[in-house]
Design a protein that fits this description.
It is built from three helices and six strands. With about 160 residues, it is an alpha+beta fold. A six-stranded antiparallel beta sheet has the order 1-6-5-4-3-2, covered by helices on one side.
């Protein structure tokens, strides 16, 4: 997907809220297919961080994902994840917290699927950034770009291959 496919490419949303990242992306695939890519562990592993293959669609389920540590944001390289809520083919909400107690990152990521024509409007909301914390502001900037360029692109590729 190219940036022109997204309705909100600024990363600030309409409100300019620095505590949240909102990505609004259209995929030319039905909600059931997008839902599969968001919730089937073997598919998630193809577009998300290592460890995501341990995902289970069960409220309270916990697992860990790993990525490259980012000292400039205080990121340890390990994200502890907990499934908070879901509605089949409509919404998935998870909590992400850095495993390191030195990092105050404690975020909620919510994926919302809306049928649109023959496709799906996928809205990602990543909440909980502290704009007064320089490390969190840097994390927000890095993650905003990552969601838009890397993750949505990789998710689109997985959907195209299904």
């Amino acid at each position: 997907m190219s940036p022109s496919d997204a309705d909100d490419i600024s990363g600030l949303g309409e409100s300019g809220d620095l505590t949240t990242i909102t990505v609004d992306q259209f995929f030319p695939h039905p909600p059931a297919k997008v839902w599969r890519a968001l919730t089937e562990p073997e598919l998630i592993a193809r577009w998300m961080m290592p460890g995501s293959e341990d995902f289970r669609l069960s409220v309270g389920h916990r697992y860990a994902m790993t990525a490259v540590p980012r000292p400039n944001t205080g990121f340890s390289g390990t994200v502890d994840v907990e499934v908070l809520a879901y509605e089949d083919e409509r919404m998935l909400s998870v909590r992400w917290a850095d495993r390191s107690p030195a990092n105050s990152a404690d975020w909620t990521i919510t994926w919302t699927l809306e049928p649109e024509g023959r496709g799906t409007r996928l809205i990602l909301v990543h909440e909980g950034f502290d704009p007064d914390d320089p490390a969190q502001a840097m994390a927000r900037k890095i993650m905003d770009g990552g969601w838009r360029s890397h993750v949505m692109g990789a998710l689109g590729q997985v959907l195209a291959e299904l």
